[in-house]
Amino acid sequence: MQSNVTTLEFSKYLYAAEELGRKSGLHITTGDDFDEYVEITSRLAGKSSTYPCFRPDSSDLPPGKAFWIIGRDRGGGVAHVQALRLDHLSNIDLAEHLGSLRAWFADPNLKAGPGSSSRCDAPTACSITGLVAYHGDIWLREDFRGRGLSTFIGGIAFGLAWAKWSPDFIYALVAGWHIEKGVVDRYGYLHREPHGSVLHLPAHGIHDDDWLVWLTRDELLKMPRTLMVDRFGRR
What highest taxon heads this organism's lineage (predicted)? Predict the structure, then answer.
């Protein structure tokens, strides 16, 4: 059960994360209209295309199942985006989910294209089930990099995911350089395994071999205390 103390801590945590964003010149908005989101992200120079799992022409993204976060600079220009979705994995584990093209498309036969394949070789994915939140499509404009905003990116995502869904797990799929440079540590993810998503979608120009990184619900609930003290410098 979610205690009042935990709720208060998360409120303070979200405020601290937003404050970090504001100090860096980012004003945050959220929404659940993914037609609007894709229209925005398709115009961002230097950002790769939004994957099918966050595109309403490929996936089911009803209100309550997915939301996006957009950060704008003081002039109103988009400087940051990320998105999250919730999957109910009660009769399937994350390895099976990621190993199926249905992780990316509502109807793979219509949308995936020829030569498409997907698999997950991360061992722990076999034990990730229940309410599982996916955190992806993360992009930060080049002139905002190097300002310590990885903490903000993870913090605002984790806080909102907990407030909306209280998931059993939250995970992301990241390229190897995120591991090598410690980016996932700054996001706040505690676990990682290679070959979490070996995905080939030739028709979409996607050829990935990403790491799986994740947090359990208990670890997510500890984030306000640990990140606000260790990273935001407050209690």
Answer: Bacteria
Domain ranges within the chain, ordered by starting residue: 4-230
Residue 186's CB is within 10 A of a number of other CB atoms, namely 17
| Cβ pair 13, 162 in contact under 8 A | no
Exposure string over 25-51, b if 16+ CB within 10 A, otherwise e:
bbebeeebebeebbebbeebeebeebb
* Joined tokens for residue 130: 């229940």
pTM over 0.85: yes
Homologous superfamily of 4-230: Gcn5-related N-acetyltransferase (GNAT) (3.40.630.30)
**Tokens read off for 118:** 């997907």
Which residues, in sequence order, are bridge partners of residue 66?
63, 85
pLDDT score recorded for residue 235: 46
